[in-house]
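Support case: user asked for a sample of complex input and structure output to validate their parser. Sending the pair below.
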Amino acid sequence: MSMNDDVDAVTPAPQPGALPQFVTPIVPRSTIAGRALVAIVAIMTFLASLTAGAVVLVQSAASDWQSEVAREVTIQVRPVSNRNLDADVARAADIARRFPGVADVRVYSKEESSRLLEPWLGTGLVLEELPVPRLAVVRVATGATPDFGQLGRALAAQVPSAAVDDHRGFVEHMRSMGRAAFLGGLAVLALVLVATVLSVTFATRGAIATNRTVVEVLHLIGAKNTFIAQHFQRRFLGLGLQGGAIGGGCALALFVLIELASGQFLGSAAGEQFAALFGSFSIGYFGYAAVIVMIALIAGVTALASRRTVNRTLETFE
Amino acid sequence: MVRFENVGLRYGLGPEVLRDLSFRIEPHSFQFLTGPSGAGKTSLMRLLFLALRPTRGLITLFGHDIATLGKDAMATLRRRIGVVFQDFRLIDHMTTYENVALPLRVVGAEEESFRDEVVELLQWVGLGERMWALPPVLSGGEKQRAAIARAVIARPQLLLADEPTGNVDPNLGQRLLRLFVELNKSGTSIVIATHDIALMDQYDARRLVLHEGRLHVYE
């Protein structure tokens, strides 16, 4: 039996001698809905990666500030009548230098002390005319935990006008501020992730809806639900990874660019302020790992959402 | 092969669209399913190809009570049924060859084992030159034949065709009927749902007539 006389549509280019092959994936590779899903995944991964990077940056900056401040204590020597201030400062510095766990003691000269007060008292300051205390900054050796209480007592015994400020109050303040910033960042990250999961889930549902005929035909010709779900999950994992790589890659590129740009501005006043706040503005290996986790997480959500949607679609057929 | 006992079907809380259907479809049999529009032909066809479950009554297919079957068992049972849909339901992004080979692909058959068979069937239905074409560029008749080829490629024991001549001219309709008769001779039970009295008059076969949800069988 032959029915060749009905051929009236466009025939594709003849392929003489070629054997037909089943090469087309069961789930279409490129559809408008699929491309829209890639765009949504890319945008949401970009935002989630930026948030994750910012959280890492705030966390590492806060911990840098704390460790920087905690590794220093200040000895303040007040001017007292009948005592030689310079001699007291030198004596206090000497006691501190010999104290176990101290790496270095730097005494602020009169000129440096004047410069510290310039923003408040103006230039041309004659320090001798004012009862301004002198400072010595004590740097703690790496890994050491000196007993500053004992240092304070030793100083009080030999230089009564000297006092030790171990910045404990400031460190506590910094610690709680850093913790609050980190928790706030985590909360924002959680919100961004929830928004990402919801938007990716809805976009995936939309993309699957355009493939409803494929799901239905496969179901009716006897494909098992796991077979159908696996094909869709694999395809949508691919779309998720593609979108995730674009969004995460853009976020990584942005972090690298900002890091390079912050290096360029290091000499300027703004650059110095920036460096004081964020250090080198590098998210480090942990930040890069966080971005990769975002890509994997969002791609995984896309794949799981597709599986769930296909299973729900199949339930409507039964 | 198929047994319906007092089967009823309603959609949601609506009225029963099929009422007290009791009939059998025997192996190697040929029957037309007919009746006026809205009589429930498509609903009955959907019950037959397991796209719906009845609201009441008993349906057994190939000796299995479908009410007791799980999802995987239902899928396995569907593989023994070929369906030609009124709207073809070819997958647009796959070539004609791939559409026809799909039922074999989903059961995990190796392409080497089915390629020759698919090509031979496509040539038999007159689509040998169109196997690389995508459905959107096929004519109505070509789509119909591709849909039939897909329905029979896995050698189903039961073939269900819903208005298979609804989209083609009378001449092609006659040729499609001859194709179904050939398939029946090779051992497949055939159920053709149609409005087309002229088509039914061309072949002397059992008629299942649906009227207002009830079935009347004319042997």
